[in-house]
Amino acid sequence: MNRNRCIILFSRTSNIHGIPSxxxxxxxxxxxxxxxxxxxxxxxxxxxxxxxxASLQSCARHKDLTKGKQIHGYMLxxxxxNTSPLAVxxxxxxxCKCNQMPYAISIFSNYDRNVFSYNAMISGFVGNGFALxxxxxxxxMRVLGTVPDRYTFPCLISGCCDATEVLELKKIHGxxxxxxxxxxxxxxxxxxxxxxxxxxxxxAQKVFDELPVRDDVVLWNAMVNGHAQxxxxxxxxxxxxxxxxxxxxxxxxxxxxxxxxxxxxxDVDNGRVIHGxxxxxxxxxxxxxxNALIDMYGKCKCVTDAxxxxxxxxxxxxxxxxxxxCVHEQCGDHDGTLRLFGRMIIAxxxxxxxxxxxxxxxxxxxxxxxxxxxxxxxxxxxxxxNTGNCRDSGDLLINxxxxxxxxxxxxxxxxxxxxDKLSSRDVAxxxxxIMGYGMHGFGKEALEMFACMCEAKFxxxxxxxxxxxxxxxxxxxxDKGREFLRQMSLKYGVxxxxxxxxxxxxxxxxxxxxxxxxxxxxxxxxxxxxxPWRALLAACRLHGNAYLxxxxxxxxxxxxxxxxxxxxxxxxxxxAAGRYEEVLDVRDSMRQQNVKKMPGCSWL
Length: 604
Hints:
By secondary structure, the chain is mainly alpha-helical. 71% of the residues lie in helices and 0% in strands. It has helices at residues 3-16, 26-29, 49-62, 65-77, 85-97, 101-108, 115-127, 131-143, 152-162, 166-178, 185-197, 201-210, 217-229, 233-245, 252-265, 268-280, 287-299, 303-312, 318-330, 334-346, 353-366, 369-381, 393-408, 412-421, 427-439, 443-455, 462-475, 478-492, 498-510, 514-523, 530-543, 546-559, 564-576, 580-592.
């Protein structure tokens, strides 16, 4: 097969998966379609080939594209690219690491190819998110008779995972056996990691067990992190313990994998042990390790510890900021989340998609509409929000989060505008609008939205009916509320739960139908809970019915004796009825039960 045939093959593959053809980039380098005649390096060359290659490798590590281009130009002028295949491979690798695949393609297409240049291209495609193109280059490599080596397979195996090609992975595994590389620890580590990502645990364990030498930390990391990534945290910790028993010294990647397991399991005590071990091993200043510690302490609800690590960091990256923002948001400190975001902006750290999707719930909980609008505007400018064309479920989740923020901030007009522009919707999209209209008293609009949802053939779920019944409650639509409760199981196949009965009891209580609300609370066919009885107690307080209030209060005290709101409600009922001795008894009871009322606050 001649060289022109090789170029045609690669040109086809480079157009398949969104990578421009090399021909569109030829003018940048003024290449001809044939390789240039080999030249001798000029005698006046101030920089040797070895120095240029070392500099290109440095540019690749630091993603220094500008300097890399300068060195490339210098090598072209002095004919150094034609003196060694390693020179061409180094240039390709530099452009790949700098995310400049079109330049890498044009170099690859105009020089003789070998296993090293193929390895660089496969690694570049996989590393830049074009796994399918990487597999195409590998297939061309096989067609042209270039034999892969131990450095070809790790990237190739990783590409199978990114491209979700299980069958291709097993074919490559077979080829690994054919070339006698099945005992290579790096190839084995890649196979273990990728099999685990496909949740093929038995295959991963078999590869691991068959390796004769298992004293490399990379292999153990593949097992620990592989189990952790698919949610098998107990197995990850089991492998880690075995690793310690075999005296394998862990590194920073082991630490991050183990910490992620302790974070999900909520095991802060063992997390602290690993924290101490990381300091002892000298990883106490490694940013990735500190980020993992922040995440672990945050998920274990140790916000003070997470914040102490964050404040003590000499260097922070975007993951550091995102981790601490998530910690505060998950712990309900919405004010703290927004304050930290202000510090992030002052530090000139550019927010990413994770940042803004963490901020939206904080704005929603605080009804901080102006902050929410600023976040939304930033998302539009930076291409994070795409209402007109929801390409995947990720786009829809983002748009739902924006809609939810506007709905909870009371800006139903903005929420409806986004909803109407959505190219695709799911049940959550409809639920957000129904809940939003319901909580702000737009009962008619909520029920109209529910009718449209059913016409669009979306099946309502438990959350849908919480919104519908809440809308009936706030709008005083008693007949509609009763009808929906009856129809939930019969017509829609959704069994009423505590929240649904509470909504109806609240609806009846607001309308003064206390006897009916009481009957429903007594007869509801679900496990007893204090929530519906508390709703009835609040309704009794609203309408001054001390008799039913005492019955409701008795049930509430039995089910939830430590909730301060129960005592406050019954106390207010007694005050309204002028029964001050009972008020004193309630307060006495609070002291005996060591129940303290949380102080109230107001935004006004």
